[in-house]
Amino acid sequence: MIVKKMPILQGFPDFETVKFFTGKYFQKYNFSPVFYDIETTGLSRKPTFLYLIGAVGIEDETWYFYQWMAENDKEEETILRIFSQFLEQYDLLISYNGERFDQPYLEARYEKYGLPSPFEGKTSLDLYLTLKPLKTLLKLPAMKQPCLEEFLGIKDRIYDNGKECIQLYKDFMKKRDSLMAEEILGHNLEDVLGLGRIFEMLGYLCIYDSEYEVTYAEADEENVIFVLKLFFSLPAEFSNGNGTFYITGKEKEVKLIVQTEQGRLKQHYKNYKDYYYLPDEDTVIPKALGSGIDKKHRKAATKDTCYTWFNCTEQFLQNPQIQKQYLEHTLPYLLAHLK
């Protein structure tokens, strides 16, 4: 078995950043996090086996990178036992597509050897599932991890992809070539370090979750312009839009241009099932208040028709709290309609 351990001195988020975002998504704030990724000889859990695990954990306030690589299929159980013992010191597992592949695969292999699952009682943060809403906003061609890294300007991958590594590993078992081993380990290293690099993309989700302050608003004849201040710096600039609005973001600032109609804005609402849409008036009314309206003049509201109108007055432009309330309701709808 090949075992490696080394400190990570740069290119990984600081521990306070990890605490901030894990606290944002889970009630418990002070997690002990570990990033991990596995390499297997195939996707199916029964005819294949695990041959490599890479992980990054905190030790003495320093991130350390660990790898355990089997030199043949007989060492799989040993790696599983070592990893299980390693995970005892952590309670938050961070992965990319780990909830759909890595963890179920490992659990199946633990079961094969009659070993207890090391995941029981631990929390999982799957960056693939969590960051998926960003595909449209950031114009990502796909949700593969290298695509996210490329968006951030990270283009320094040099090793084979996972599929090519499978054949490379099979060749390694026959030849025991140390250069082949280094290439396999290098691919896994890039995957695990990449988890840290894309982790800060969680900052873009603050826009969806209304975690910002409105610092400026102004209106002209056709649009309202908002400036938002985020509590966390975005790792890369972005811009997107459609015929209704345009959004840009850089560092801790996001700018919005929202189109008006005769000086009015649409106030959208998420809980559309609680409203009736009144076509004649082009607005919605809560069902509790609209039950007496003739059925000819009301319809069940949909996501696209659940809105009211209001005038973009000077009072609105001078009140950040009212602006925030408007954006809390409407911005998620606008973001959901990007293409």
Walkthrough of the structure:
The chain has 339 residues and is an alpha+beta fold. It contains twelve helices and 16 strands. Helix 6 crosses helix 8 and helix 7 packs antiparallel against helix 8.
Can I get a quick summary?
This protein is an alpha+beta fold. It has helices at 15-25, 76-87, 98-112, 127-131, 134-137, 145-151, 162-175, 178-199, 205-208, 287-290, 314-317, 320-336; strands spanning 2-7, 33-40, 50-59, 62-69, 92-95, 123-126, 212-219, 223-230, 238-241, 245-250, 253-259, 264-268, 275-278, 283-286, 299-300, 307-311.
Characteristics:
elongated, 35% helix, 16 strands, 5-stranded antiparallel beta sheet, 12 helices
Per-chain topology:
Elements lengths: L1 E6 L7 H11 L7 E8 L9 E10 L2 E8 L6 H12 L4 E4 L2 H15 L10 E4 H5 L2 H4 L7 H7 L10 H14 L2 H22 L5 H4 L3 E8 L3 E8 L7 E4 L3 E6 L2 E7 L4 E5 L6 E4 L4 E4 H4 L8 E2 L6 E5 L2 H4 L2 H17 L3
Helix pairs in contact: 6-8, 7-8
From the spread of the alpha carbons, the general shape counts as: elongated
Task: Report the C-alpha radius of gyration, rounded.
Answer: 25 Å
User: Based on DSSP secondary structure assignment, what is the total number of beta strands?
Assistant: 16
- Note the run of SSEs as H and E: EHEEEHEHEHHHHHHEEEEEEEEHEEHH
Mean of residue pLDDT values: 92
Binned strand content = 25-35%
Q: What is the distance, rounded to the nearest whole angstrom, between the alpha carbons of the first and last residues? A: 48 Å
Weakly predicted, low-confidence segments = none
Helical content stands at 25-40%
Which sheet architecture does the biggest sheet show? Answer: 6 strands, mixed
Report the total helices. 12
Strand line-up in the sheet with most strands: 1-4-3-2-5-6
